[in-house]
């Protein structure tokens, strides 16, 4: 008798399909989740597996990958069953290893026809040696993405928190908005490039040697913007902003370290997958976190994003943050909490009786909705999808705490449908906020190009270079940079150090302005539109009117041979992005001195 393994978590669908298959003469084995499906495939060796894709514990895609990666089960046909008849689902199922695909509600005659086709006897092929665990690449790309996302979430949270605390029309608020939008751009890039489904389909085309430079190139421009504006704000922000700006800057530097060492990071992630245990960042509560105070709500956070604790502290809550699950379990008996924020990777804590009467707010990434639904089913109150603005965090926390006060008056839980409706509305509001910020940023960009030309005239900011120019006039620097945010940030920092700054946004305009403005130094970005930095430099050095002007090449491509290529094209010096301003100022000074001595 032909044996069929039916992996289905919906009891009604499972019973209906089992009975119809048995009526057709098949012997049916049942599994109610993906993990049980993998186990029973190996132990019972069925002739065919019917695999629902949306399963608890282990979803159908991952269960199929594990079945196809095991030499003992990889020859067993798998038919994917799903209610999501959307574009790409079939390709995704086949990419995971499924032999066929069918949609719900099941057309039973069509399903039996597909089963019969797969069950026809075939000449067995000798098993091929397994050289790659197919579950590994997906897990590795996902863990790499999560490692890069963590400092980005921190940057988004801190910049949003500082925006909330700053005056809406101030220059501080405008610069924080640029940091916030750039951090959102970083998150979009990381989630788009490190899409695990896309990478799994294309993994044979990627190598570390090709992938690392491509990813580094995409991330360095917005990251350079964030680091530059952080350093700018640290020089001029109010004292009560400095501590949080330093945390923001540290998060950016941590991501920069990961980006600059992508080769080793990628190698590590392709060798071993991350364990299910999250790695928490150590965090010490500030002096304002006093558990002896009884007049404000006490909140426990079990998560890695430390900026969440800082946001809640600013809102007046008494916050404690656990760095490990074990520490959380040790804290719970000794303190009473009004609310717990729990990272979705640790929903097993929901079964602890100590949390039974405490509202739980889950923290998850956008691709962790199955775990969120599982957590809601286990008793969690609500959830937040990272990244989230401080206003949404404040609203969710306040709603959960208010629900506790009204718990005795509530007779029936209002259901998951209302929760999803509220979440969709909040997500729509968040999208509108982001669009509004992006529009405002465009307005800032347009006005910045007119403001940059203002020159600091004070004598005490003059760099002293006798003989280069009249001592009453600032030294002129031509900055050729096509990224408006980086151009604005760097020009403002140079103005602060006493230089006059002339801007050009492409190579052709840079050549033209060098002739008309006759600057003392040219800062030349290499990747420019119209003509690139290499060609622009060669033209300037070939023209007697501009050949003596020192040129410093700026590039995000810190690759072997780039310095030699820059010098060969005629550049007098070379520097990498993100810009370290003291180093750049030193190179400008050296170029000016060299120019005097010629």
Explain the overall architecture.
A five-stranded parallel β-sheet has the order 2-1-3-4-5, with helices on both faces. A five-stranded parallel β-sheet has the order 7-6-8-9-10, sandwiched between helices. Strands 12-11-13-14-15 form a five-stranded parallel β-sheet, with helices on both faces. The protein has 21 helices and 15 strands. The longest helix has 36 residues, at 416-451. It folds into four domains: 3-119, Rossmann fold, CATH 3.40.50; 135-271, de novo design (two linked rop proteins); 298-410, 3-Layer(aba) Sandwich (Rossmann fold); 459-597, Rossmann fold. It is globular. The protein has 598 residues and is an alpha/beta fold.
The chain-level structural class is: alpha/beta
Q: Name the CATH class of the largest domain.
A: Alpha Beta
Using the coordinates shown, work out and report the CATH topology of the largest domain: Rossmann fold
Instruction: List unreliable stretches of 5+ residues.
Output: 129-139, 272-295, 455-468
The CATH architecture name of the largest domain reads 3-Layer(aba) Sandwich
Give the total of beta strands. Answer: 15
- Biggest sheet descriptor: 5 strands, parallel
Oligomeric state of the chains present here = single chain
Helix content: 40-55%
Cα shape? globular
Summed up, the helix count is 21
Distance N terminus to C terminus? Answer: 94 Å
EC number: 2.7.13.3
Protein name: histidine kinase
Keywords: Coiled coil, Phosphoprotein, Two-component regulatory system
InterPro entries: CheY-like_superfamily, HisK_dim/P_dom, HisK_dim/P_sf, Sig_transdc_resp-reg_receiver
């Amino acid at each position: 008798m032909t044996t069929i393994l039916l992996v289905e978590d919906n009891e009604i669908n499972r019973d209906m399909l089992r009975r119809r298959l048995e009526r057709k003469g098949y012997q049916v084995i049942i599994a109610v989740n993906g993990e049980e499906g993998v186990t029973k495939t190996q132990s019972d060796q069925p002739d065919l597996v019917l695999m629902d894709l949306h399963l608890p514990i282990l979803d159908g895609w991952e269960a199929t990958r594990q079945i196809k990666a095991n030499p003992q089960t990889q020859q067993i046909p798998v038919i994917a069953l799903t209610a999501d008849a959307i574009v790409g689902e079939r390709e995704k199922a086949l990419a995971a290893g499924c032999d066929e695909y069918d949609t719900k509600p099941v057309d039973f005659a069509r399903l039996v026809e597909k089963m019969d086709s797969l069950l026809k006897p075939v000449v067995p092929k000798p098993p091929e040696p397994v050289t790659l665990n197919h579950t590994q690449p997906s897990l590795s790309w996902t863990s790499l993405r999560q490692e890069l996302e963590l400092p980005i979430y921190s940057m988004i949270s801190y910049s949003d928190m500082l925006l909330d605390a700053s005056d809406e029309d101030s220059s501080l608020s405008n610069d924080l908005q640029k940091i916030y939008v750039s951090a959102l751009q970083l998150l979009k890039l990381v989630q788009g490039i490190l899409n695990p489904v896309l990478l799994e389909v294309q993994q044979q085309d990627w190598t570390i040697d090709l992938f690392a430079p491509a990813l580094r190139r995409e991330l360095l421009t917005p990251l350079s913007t964030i680091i530059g504006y952080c350093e700018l704000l640290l020089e001029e922000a109010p004292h009560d902003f400095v501590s949080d700006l330093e945390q923001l800057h540290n998060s950016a530097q941590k991501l920069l370290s990961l980006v600059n060492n992508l080769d080793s990071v990628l190698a590590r992630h392709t060798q071993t997958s991350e364990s299910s245990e999250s790695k928490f960042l150590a965090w010490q509560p500030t002096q304002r976190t006093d558990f002896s105070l009884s007049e404000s709500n006490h909140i426990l956070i079990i998560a890695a994003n430390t900026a969440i604790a800082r946001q809640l502290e600013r809102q007046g809550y008494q916050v404690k943050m656990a760095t490990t699950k074990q520490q959380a379990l040790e804290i719970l008996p000794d303190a009473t909490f009004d609310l717990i924020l729990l990272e979705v990777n640790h929903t097993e804590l929901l079964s602890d009786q100590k949390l039974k009467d405490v509202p739980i707010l889950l923290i998850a990434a956008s691709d962790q909705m199955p775990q969120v639904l599982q957590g809601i089913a286990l008793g969690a109150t609500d959830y937040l999808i990272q990244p989230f603005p401080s206003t949404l965090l404040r609203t969710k926390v306040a709603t959960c705490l208010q629900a506790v006060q009204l718990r005795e008056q509530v007779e029936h839980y209002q259901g998951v449908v209302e929760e999803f409706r509220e979440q969709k509305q909040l997500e729509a509001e968040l999208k509108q906020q982001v669009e509004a910020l992006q529009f405002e940023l465009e307005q800032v960009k347009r006005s910045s190009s007119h403001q940059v030309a203002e020159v600091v005239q004070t004598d005490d900011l003059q760099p002293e270079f006798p003989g280069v120019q009249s001592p009453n006039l600032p030294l002129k620097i031509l900055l050729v940079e096509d990224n408006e945010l980086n151009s604005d940030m760097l020009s403002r920092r140079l103005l602060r150090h006493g230089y006059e700054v002339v801007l050009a946004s492409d190579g052709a305009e840079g050549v033209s302005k060098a002739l008309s403005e006759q600057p003392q130094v040219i800062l030349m970005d290499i990747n420019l539109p119209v003509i690139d930095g290499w060609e622009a430099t060669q033209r300037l050095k070939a023209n007697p009117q501009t050949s003596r002007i020192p040129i410093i090449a700026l590039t995000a491509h810190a690759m072997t041979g780039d310095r030699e290529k820059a010098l060969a094209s005629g550049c007098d010096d070379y520097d990498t992005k993100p810009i370290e301003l003291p180093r750049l100022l030193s190179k400008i000074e050296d170029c000016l001195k060299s120019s005097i001595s010629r």
